[in-house]
Amino acid sequence: MNQPLAGYAPAPVTARMENHGHHMLKVAMQTGNDLLARVGSMVAYEGFVQYEPNPPAVRQIARDWITGEGAPLMKCTGDGLLYLADYGANVVVINLNGDGISVNATNLLAFDAHLSWGVERVKGLAKFAGQGLWNTRISGQGWVALTSRGEPIVVDCGGGEDETYVDPDALVAWSPNLKVKGKRSFKAQSLIGRGSGEAYQMAFSGQGIVVVQPSEDSTDRIRIRG
């Protein structure tokens, strides 16, 4: 019975975070190297791993989450292997090398607890959405895992003059140093949603990447507060 299942066995650990297949994240847990992960994302673990929902560090930042952009997080500590997933979504692993990434909270699966993070206003979009749009920014030296509804594409903006346009419902993350602005294609009263005739896009320019998923989620990709 074990032989047909051998191909699904966990591979040897080679990094702090890595994919196990397309839809699961494997994290090598070590004492002193804690993890923040989406509540409910644990599917299995080996060794000794403990969980603390809504830890003090999260509650402190949550006081600034008046925008509603915060995702429920838990603190994971201990030694062993931890497996995370989010309803079969694709998992994207990113190793930040002192840089940062701006992520929609609905796509945030896990990240190293020592990284700097918080909710920030997306500049350049206030005139499209009242007080503006908000996202979660993570920066520093460490690992981040994102989810995507389907296999994503990573667009390199390349630093040229041409802009990259993305439907907000398909947007996962982007380099925070990119310039962002909004563009309306049709009637001004149309905003976001599949029924809007793709009337509103986000335009990115500069040096950096944009991660786009092949699915237009019906939930808010970026929180709007007027």
Describe this structure in words.
InterPro entries: AIM24, AIM24_sf, Trp_RNA-bd_attenuator-like_dom. This is AIM24 family protein. It comes from Streptomyces incarnatus. The chain has 226 residues and is mainly β. 3% of the residues lie in helices and 47% in strands. Strands 1, 2, 3, 4, 5, 6, 7, 8, 9, 10, 12, 15 and 16 form a 13-stranded antiparallel β-sheet that branches. A three-stranded antiparallel β-sheet has the order 11-14-13, with no helix packed on it. β1 (17-19) and β2 (25-29) form a beta hairpin. The N and C termini lie far apart (58 Å).
Produce a short descriptive summary.
InterPro entries: AIM24, AIM24_sf, Trp_RNA-bd_attenuator-like_dom. The chain is mainly beta and 226 residues long.
**Radius of gyration over C-alpha positions, nearest whole angstrom:** 18 Å
Largest sheet: 13 strands, antiparallel
- Count of helices? 1
Alpha-carbon distance between the two ends: 58 Å
Global morphology? globular
Structural class assignment: mainly beta
Which whole number gives the mean pLDDT?
81
Tally of DSSP β-strands: 16
Helix content: under 10%
Strand content: over 45%
Order of helices and strands: EEEEHEEEEEEEEEEEE
Low-confidence stretches: 187-196, 220-226
Distinctive features:
single chain; about 230 residues; mainly beta; 3-stranded antiparallel β-sheet; 1 helix; 16 strands; about 5% helix; globular; disordered C terminus
Helix/strand layout:
Layout: E1 17-19, E2 25-29, E3 35-38, E4 42-53, H1 56-62, E5 73-84, E6 90-103, E7 108-112, E8 116-122, E9 133-148, E10 153-156, E11 164-166, E12 171-174, E13 179-184, E14 200-205, E15 209-212, E16 223-224
Antiparallel strand pairs: 1-2, 2-5, 3-5, 3-7, 4-5, 6-9, 6-12, 7-9, 8-9, 9-16, 10-15, 11-14, 12-15, 13-14
